[in-house]
Write a structure and sequence with these properties.
The protein is built from twelve helices and ten strands. By secondary structure, it is an alpha+beta fold. Helix 1 runs parallel beside helix 5 and helix 4 runs parallel beside helix 5.
Length: 347
Amino acid sequence: MTSVTYQSAGVDIEAGNEAVRRIKQAVESTFSDAVLTNIGSFGAMYDLKAILNEYQHPVLVQSIDGVGTKMMVAKMMQKFDTIGIDLVSATVNDIIVLGAKPLTLLDYIANDKLNPRIVEEMVKGMASACRENNISLVGGETAEMPGTYLPGEHDLVGVVTGVLEKEKAILGKDIAVGDVVLAFPSSGLHTNGYSLARKLLFDVGGHHVDSVLPELTKSVGETLLTPHLNYTKPVLAMLANNIAIKGMAHITGGGLLENIPRILPAHCDVEIEKAKCPTLPVFDVLCKLGHLNDAEAYKTFNMGVGLVMMVAPAMIDAMKAVLKHHTAFPLYEIGRVVPGARKVRLV
């Protein structure tokens, strides 16, 4: 009688072992002295003693996020070397807006059939972004689940952990009428709005990942895979220089219209001047293809704005002085805080 094995059921343990062998060096290259466990441990251990000595009242900050259907574009391109960068940015940006310093990342990769080469590409991207931002990629899980995912599909999720001083948490409670709204630009869609973008470009527009449009400097696929920017360095530099940022919003799903209200006090609105916002041609293409009005566009896409900060007007010069050392992150003044009830007005 023929033996029915785990591999015959669709799960290849040796492929998992091969993936671990391929990623081991990249993962361990992210380790700080605080990491106490090696890759393959049942759990990740991280020494907090030195960190606790730097804070009066340390608070752990955590967030979980994924790369969404941007992964489907990576599949269409068979290019997975930047999607891990996206994961680090998507998770880390969500905690730096609270004032947290990121420390560790855990990842979860799921698929129908494990391909060690693809896993290696993803993890090397993660590791590169982690090294650049002093984050330890302390562990992860690779799940091969035949029948759960369509052939060739992958899902990628990460959990980031950081720390902040409790008294310095940036929660938006001090935002006041008259404060200025400043922004860092995005590099593209980042990791949100891809379901609509794919429908517009591939179904409505009839384009392919290799299509070259006159409005874009790269192919459609390359434009869509542009990595999500990571704002850790400029934000932490400003906080280290005691720049009093009252509130920050990472512009992800929901766009400007739904992310900014999450940090506003009950008596405040924000007016955004569209003409002052950074823009990118890809959003013009998408809006034209879908005949999108502002309400739809600005709640689906970031529209060129990656991170928003609110400060007193007197802080702007000090911010600009710090950002002279971070030239990749130009600062835009895009609006004001006005009386209202937690809404965003586009003017």
